[in-house]
Amino acid sequence: MVSVIPLFGGLPVGPELLIILLVLVLLFGANKIPKLARSTGQAMGEFKKGREEIEEELKEMDDDDSGSVVNDEDDEFDDLETETDKETSA
Q: How far apart are CA 7 and CA 57, in angstroms?
């Protein structure tokens, strides 16, 4: 069985979390923390929406490519047949 060792000791709990919150209040001030959290949430939402759009585009491209590959191969065979017909008739 493989055991996973966290890089920084895991998530802060108890006193460590209180120290982190105290440092945040000292750095940003009590008034700016809600604004910071709100803007972070909006940025995460925009990132998620952009990621979903890209995934949809890639899925559409994959669906379109799977049908067009067969058509391209058929066109190549048609071109080969016409070239062969030209050579035999000449």
A: 36
